[in-house]
Every structure is written in structure tokens, then in C-alpha cells.
Write a structure and sequence with these properties.
single chain, about 30% helix, six-stranded mixed sheet, 17 strands, alpha+beta
Length: about 425
Amino acid sequence: MKLLAFLPLASASIVILPGGSPLPYKPSTNLTLSSASDLLRQSAPSEFPNSTVQLLLSTYSGTLDPSTASTNFSSHLPSGDSFVRSAIQAWGEHLHLVLRPDEIWFTILTQMNFYMEAHAEAVRHLFVKHQGQEVIYIEDYTWTDVLWRFKEEIQKRVLTPWLEDWIVPGFSTTTDNDIMTSNILMMGLVKAYFRYEGGIICGLPSVTLEGTREDWVKLEKKLERLEFFGEEPKEYRKRLAPIFKRFVKSWDEPDSAETKKFWNSIVFASYSGICGAAPLDVSGWITGFFYWDEQGQPWGRGGRSVVKLDGVDYWSQDITRLPVGYARAPFIMRDFGGKERFEAYVAAGNLGKKVVEGYPSGYEAALTRSGAKVDKEKLKAQRAGHATLKPLSAWLLYGPLEHNRTKTYRTTEAELGLLASRTKANLGAACEKPRE
């Protein structure tokens, strides 16, 4: 894989130095991506069970941001949950990690999609007055315009006046493609109440938190609405609260021992070597983002706890069984592809990762701020010995794919096996417990 020079990030960001030693990225020789189809098919293999399922539209089609149509995928990696798995990879391979509040928020929305798979009827009265599914049919000039309008049409039909504003990220880092991603996650959240149809009118060496402090305060504030969905989301909020509080505190005290300890506790891993045991257990507060599996059933509640924040335990999990970080909803395209009713799906969430050579913008300033003696020439010469990983998010429209097929999100993911083997290769005794 060809590594590209890392582009400067927005000046409004904060770099935290947990204290890990950076290592150069070692590309996997068998991972080559040349197109959006490559990236998204390998990131979400369960959504493309055969070669007849085509990628019809996505983040990379250029319809919301023309520049995405010319994306160079040589520095991209497939990922079915870019935030959590990037954190694990960056920790395990000593890579710098760059985070946006958007991908973290999409992780929460995806988990809430999973929760609603099993609990939509229990909370139906909170959202709608009707029974069954009401059809929302939208016509516009392009399929992108059709999909874009669903958030507004859903908002008109639900009893919760805050739903659209809550779901849309609304951060300084948020792009139109992020709004579309949240729009599709909104469609998935309430798909038990609505059926979506559309037609065309003819015609860790470092962690960088992007955006502003206010963005991360706003992200923390969004957790308050989780309680509206019921007791389980209320408990989910309790697991997330200590983490989100420390996201904000990282802006105020990026160089404090407490902040560094927090980011050093994002991931831990252990390998038992016992036959029949999990190939690799991961723990740390990153596991706090999981509470349900893809069918909305309890997941990741219990196990060995290595990290505790404000009295909340974060349990270890089998790395090969981590849930995905995206959700989907069925969609009917009328008079498309030679069919009156073309069965397709929309999906959105944290899909894909990007790794580039070098350290992120602000790294040198963070070293100076923390009191380290910085030799600029030496640091520049060592740039090739650093690599930076960034989670990506995406949305996609794909089909034909029958809506009545057996529902499954779980297909063997090469990413998880590679994540386990590469993390295990860098594993040492210090990786199994928090660094003081």
C-alpha cells in the first residue's frame, strides 16, 4: 500500500500525548483497494452476498461533495467499524490516532439502531401513534436528493420534535456526507414504524480530537436523549458518561497525568494461548461503546474488567466477535432497473479507515507544550517512522437485494482476523493493564 503525506488538519484540534512510542506502519501486502466499491464491499461484506449486488450510490459518488469522486484509495483500509477498530489498531501497532466527534456519534447511533431491532414496539408510543409501517414516498430529481429528504419527512411524522436535530451531528467537522450518514442511521432507527420508498422525477502515540471544544461538549450533551428510549439506553448512557466527560476534559488538560492515563486506557489486550479460548481479548474503555448486537440483544455485558472509570467497569471482549459499526434499512426504488419495485438497501455508519505516513498536524506543538525538548530537524527526519490512522464514515445505496432474505449482519470479516494477529504480534506484558 502506498502511503501519502498526511494533510494538515484544521487548526482547531487538540493533540494528547499518552506516551506511547511511535512505530512505522507496516502495510499488509494482500490489501489493495482501488475504488469505492473495493472499500465498501470489503468493509461490509455481509451486505454484498453475491456479485449481482451492485454499489449504486455512496459517499464516494461525488453527489454531495464532488472531490470524493476522485478519492485516491491507496491509503484506505476496509473496516466494518472504523472508530473502535481503528482505536484497537492504533494502540496495537503504535500509530497516531485522529478522531472526529462525528464517527464517535455514529457509533452511538448504530448501537441505538441495534437496540431498536428488539425494542421498537416497546417504545412505539413514544414516537408514533400508528400501528405497523407507514409508507414514506419521496420523489426528486436524483437518488441523492431522494435520500437526503427522508430525515425531514421522518421528523414530520414522529412525536419527538428533537429527533432530527439530535441525530444530525452538527459539529464544526460535520460535512454533507456526514449529514447523509446520520440521515440513513435515522431511517434505520425508526424503520419499524416506516417503510421507505423513492422515485425519480423525470428531468495512540498521539490522539487528535478534531473540531472545537464546543463540538465535544455538544457530543456529550447528545447523550442526555438516550434515556428517552427506555431503561437499557439509560444504562448505556451511564457507561458512556465517564468517557465523554473525559473527551471534554482532554481539551482543558491535554497534558495532565489523568488525561494521559485515560487515553492509555482506551485499549488493552491479552492472549491466553489456551486451546478453545478467544484468540485475543480486548478491554479498555473502548468496549463501553458496545451494548447490543446487530439483533438488539444484550452484548458485551460482563467479563474481565481491566479499566474502571467513575465506578463503571469496562469488560474484555473477544476481538473476533466485535459487532459492526453501521446499520441499514430496506428501500424501494420505484421504476428503476427495469422493475416497478426495485428492492434495495441503504446503509450508513463507520465504514473504512485511512492510514498515512507521518504524524498529524499539531504533534510537534503538543510535544513542545508538554515540556519535551524538540529537535525539529530530527523529528522531520523521523517522519517516516510515524503513521497516522483515521476512522472514516460512509453511506451507501445498494441492490438488488431481496428484503425478505434471512437477516444477517455477520459474515466472516478479514479485518478482525488481521486486527487480532497484528495486535498479538506487538503484544507485551505492559499491554494488559493500565499504564500509571
